[in-house]
Amino acid sequence: MYDFKIAAADKATLYRDLASALDGLVAGEPDPVANMANAAALIWETLPEINWAGFYRNVGGELVLGPFQGRPACIRIAFGQGVCGAAAASLQPQRVDDVHAFPGHIACDSASVSELVVPIVGADGELIAVLDLDSPARARFDADDEAGCVKLAEILAKAL
Ligand code: SME
User: Fold this and answer.
1) What is the C-alpha to C-alpha distance for residues 131 and 78, in angstroms, rounded to an integer?
2) Digit-coded pLDDT (tens) for 82-133
């Protein structure tokens, strides 16, 4: 049984504990679907105020929905389209305080207001997937969330 109850006083500790739990969850498991599924569940259980947490995979230069927690979502996203597509095309994290003000935003759940998307890049520099987090709160994600999720993406880059 996996029982990760992470209750940290501050964000740095929260993400440190989350990274260490993720490290443990994916250790020794080569299956990328299993690892993305457990990562999505762990993030969903741990981070407050999120309404979607999951992955879009790079399948031949197109983002295709992967394991996630939350409402059913759009399945295919072109590179450059919406927040996920911007992260995929630029290989840079995208932190958006209000998605309604983001040109080309794809509304999967009308409750989503802010969003953080972090690319997961392999050792060869190629995009493997993006980690996508949505929140119903405006400006839910700050620089500490971004840094914490970049660390999670680094762990996942070796596990996908
Ligand atoms: N809002 C995203 C699409 C994916 S859903 O949020 C799950 C975007 O614009 O990239």
Assistant:
1) 15
2) 999 999 999 999 999 999 999 888 888 888 999 999 999 999 999 999 999 9
* Pocket mutation for ligand 1, best pick of 44, 69, 77, 95 (most atoms within 8 Å of C-beta): 77
Closest residue by Cα to atom 7, ligand 1, is: 73
Over the stretch 12-43, which tens digit does the pLDDT of each residue have?
Answer: 999 999 999 999 999 999 999 999 999 999 99
- Rounded mean pLDDT, 32-60: 97
Kindly list the protein residues whose Cβ atom lies closer than 6 A to any atom of ligand 1. Answer: 52, 73-74, 77, 82-84, 105-106, 108, 112, 115, 132, 134
How deeply is 6 buried, as exposed, middle or buried, from its count of CB atoms within 10 A (0-12, 13-18, 19+)?
A: middle
